[in-house]
Structure formats: C-alpha cells, structure tokens
Amino acid sequence: MRWLVALLLLASAPLLAQTRGYVARANGFDLDQNGTVGEVGVDDLICDEVGGSDVSNRYSEDLFFDGTAEEQIFVDCSGGTDNATCGLPGTPCLTLNYALNTRATTDDGQADVICFKNTCTPENLVLGGGGIAGSYVRVKSGNEVRDTRLPTEPLVLAGWDADGDNSYPPFDTDDTSVLEGTGLTRVLDVGNTDYFEIAHFDVQNYSDSSFNSDTFGNFQASQYQNLHDMEWVNIADRAGDVRWIYIGDTHEHMVLENNYVEHGGVFIIRGFYDATGVYGPVLVKNLTAVGDDVSGDSWAFWDVSGYLTGADFVDSVIDVDAKTWDPALTQHIGFQFNNCTQDLNVVNSYIAGFSTHFQIKGGSTSFCNGGGPGRLTCDDCLIDRNEIVFDTNYGSLKGKAFGLDDAGFDESKMVVDVIITNNIIYNVLPAKMMMFINDERRDDDTAFPGTLTAVNNTVISTDSLNPTTRSFIWLEADGAGIRPQNYVLKNNIFNFGSDSGRRQINTEWAPSGWDSDNNVWDATASYIWNGGSVRTTLADWQSDTGGDDNSAECDPTFVGGLESAADLHLAANDLCALDNGATLLTVTDSDYDGPDNRPVNNWDIGADEVEEGEDPPAPDPGDGIVLSGSGLDGSNTQ
Known about the structure:
The protein is mainly beta and 638 residues long.
C-alpha cells in the first residue's frame, strides 16, 4: 500500500493548506518553531551527524535555537553496542530502550534527542521522563480550526538521516528507520510522559489481540505530544477492543500530523475522558487511514467519550473497508461522539467505507454532570467541506451519513448545536440513508436545547434501496418523550438521479423550530410530514410545513453529470441551483472548495459555488472522481 504514497512526493516544501491525506515529505521538522517545516539549513540539523560536539559521549547541539544545547543519542539497531559510552554517531547504542532509559538524562536541563537507524524490535518502549516543560503557539493556517500548542524543547524520537542528505525516512528510501513488531504487542507506553515529538520512521507488524489494548501507544495523563511523518502498517489484530492510539485521563495538546495508517485496529483512535480533568485539544491533520480485504480493518475510526473539549480532524482521508472486517455486523461507524464531548470539527476530509459516517450520542446525567454543571454532547460541532461516500452495501436499516441515537442513555444531556455545511454526500453502491437519521428519544422532562443546521450540502443517491421506507432525511419517533425541535435546512440539493418513486424526507413529528427553505428537491420523490400521508408535490409539502417557499423541484446540472457522480461541482450553465440560494454568511462563508468562496449575495444551492469566469477543477486522471480523496496516495488537493 505504501508504494502508492510515493507516487506523489513533496520533497522539502510544507504540505499545501488543503492537501488531503498523508504525503511523504523529506522533512517535517520545525526546529526554529516559526510555523514552516523543512527549511533547508534550519530544520534539517537534527539527527544528521553534522554540527554537533562530543559532550560526555552525547552529540551536543542547539537544535531549537534557544541558546541551550540538546543531547543527541544515536542508535544503530544492527551495528551498535549498549555500554556506558555509546551514543555518538560513530559509536552508537544498540537498543532504543538503553538509549532512552540509561543514556538519556532528564535532570540536566537539556532535552534528549534519540536518532535511530536500521530495524529495531522494541516492545512497550518507555519514553523516559519526557522533554523540558514549555510550549509555543503555532498560529492556525489553512483549514485548521484553532491555534496549536507544541512543545518547545521536546524529547525527540526520530529516524536518523544516516546518509546526510537532509532528507529523512520514510521519504528517503536510502535511510531505514523501522520498528518491527512481529510476535510483539504494544510499541510504546507514553502514559504520564509530557513534551515529546515522535517523527520520521516506520512502525509495522505489531499485533495485540488482547481485549482493551493499544498497539502504538497509551496516551493517558500526558500533554504536549507531536507525532508526524510516520507510516504504520499492520499494527493491530482484529480481536478485542484494539486501538492504534488510546487517549485519556488528564490529556492536553496532542497533534497527529501527516501520518499513514494501514490496518489500524478495531478502533484507530479511541479515548475516554472522565469528569475530573482537563482534556484536549487534539488535532488530527493530513492522516491517511486505509484498509482492504484482510483482517484488522477499523470498524469505528474515532470513538471519543467524556469531557473532551476541542477535537479537530482536518485535511484527511479515511478509506477503510469496514464491512470486510466483520460482515455480520450491521453497523460500522466512522466518527462516534459520545457523552458530553464538545467542540468537535471535521473539515475538508474524504470519508468512505462505513455504514454510519458520523454518530452522535448523548450521555447519562450522572456521567455528564460530573459533580458540577451538566455538559451537553457536541455543543459547537462542525462538519464542513467533506466528501462522504457510501461505497459498501450494508443491506440493513443502518446506512447514514449523520445519526443521532439514544443508545439506551438517559438523554437529559444530549446534543446542543451541530452544523453540517458544504459537504458532498453520494453513493457508489446502494445505500438506504444519505443525509441523517434522528431516532433520538428523550425520556426526561427537559427541553431539547440545540439546533441541527444543514446548509449548502449536495446529497446524491443514484442507486438507493427500499425507496418507500428510507429517506434522505428521517426523523423517527422512537417512543415517548421530548424530541429535538430545532432544525435549519437550507440551500441543499437532494436528488435520486434516474431513480423514481423515492421518499426524500420523512418526519414522524412536527418540529416546532423547523426552518427549511431554498432547497432543491427531487421532483420524482415524495414527502411525509408529522407521520401523515405521502405527499408527491412540493406544493403539498409547503402547505404541510409552512416552509420551503423558495425551494424548487428540479435536476441540477453537474460538471461530470448526475448519474456518475464523477464531478459534482455545479456546472456554469445550470438552470436549477445556480444563484437560487439564500445568503447565509452567519452560518458559513465557504463552499466545498475552500473558505471565503461565497459571494455577498446570490448564492448557489448545494456544496459548490460557481465562481464567475472560472472553470471548475479539472478531473483527476487517477481515479476519475475530482472530489475524491480515495487517497491511498494522499494526492487529492481539493
């Protein structure tokens, strides 16, 4: 799989602001901490055998430009020797464990840098005492939602630029830095370790089949971690609750940037945050996670529970064949937000291979109260500018882009505000549910406090199942109780292609805060409001709901055509959605292709805004889908 990544390589330049997925690069370090990685003569001083001096058999050099020298300890897992004088490039240590826990020092005010080459076989590697306390702010850029804090003088574990060409593995195939785990379980345990950076090497073939285990690392009670420019392949067995990374307890400021994961476990990322600490933020950026027809694929990509505030997933590619992992399961979840997690953002990513791409659950009153003011799940959550693809036929009641589910919880602490904007949602195999299901049931006596806003999305289903029982939008009345009342549904395109007789919206109650307008509905599909009779015309729907006065029933014209979903940018000659949208700058100023793309007025309906005088992006010759980050090579730059 990794050879595909090498098809498109960005040698020394930083990743483009909107590049989706992992792209191997020569240097992802930012040693001078100015926000630009890979600067020649600056960011390539680390682990390169040049410029340092021998201080107590450690290679001493000021790597972070702060006037204090760091101690580099070199490890050759094939030709080194563990002894009291190892650590220089010419006399390296043999094992990472010896370098980290015997040669490294934590009480001298100098950060330690461990540089290794060849193939090492550590298990449950301990990162010693971490780095020197302190952090700096990297100002947000591109699609990042917030500024990021990174350690100023971290403990570093990195691949060795042994050939001295200022290029690091895995990009530089002349250098080998691999952690090999055949027959082993967890790679390392970083619980209670703060201020570290792990970068530029491969991890492969670790397999822990025990329940509730973490094959790469258990990141509990730790803060200020930076993991970047790494490739993990075959790092988890499919049995049990196995995770690539587990994040929990008092955990703060984690960055996972420009990484590749292939077969990453039952959960690729999982975390549980109780009600007694401070958690977040977590940034996952330019991640590619893939799977194919072998065991070990993910069935829930990111599952978070508890008091996490601030989780951002941007510019990434998730393309796993979760159904292959366990064909008997009827539900495989991409992102699962549970139990009072808040401020979650998924932006500019490609997400495929799941039955439910986003599932949002409430939490029990006792858990989310935490002895203090109650917290509400997904307060201030944004799902924006993503491509969401149904490419697996689950053949069950599941199959939805967005779901709100009670899951047996006491729902007095449920969803507050969720904003879903500028997404392309379509299927290449039969799917039963395209937009979102809300089968939420509230059994307490408090009002549902939040608003679900869906604005400027393009939703296309050209091969749907069970047309009269499943819809683009379905509000299911699952028992008694107080149900969500506040919805904003504007500027969306819903279309079934050549399929006719489909059900496009079905509400089993009449929300009091229903605000729907300027949508493009399918003229061949029907509507149901408040569990009533089937309506076949927009006029009937308008009469029932009192909304959608400025909506229409028509077929939009797309650049690549409607049936193929080859390119769902709106065509410049469209007579259906072009210039017919409402101006909603208080909700978003973006379209699918980027921020600040919406005009002051005369918006287009759907995810794409046609810019006057500009042609849409050219089709991608690699996969024929312009909007796809199918992404095994991380090449999509939409």
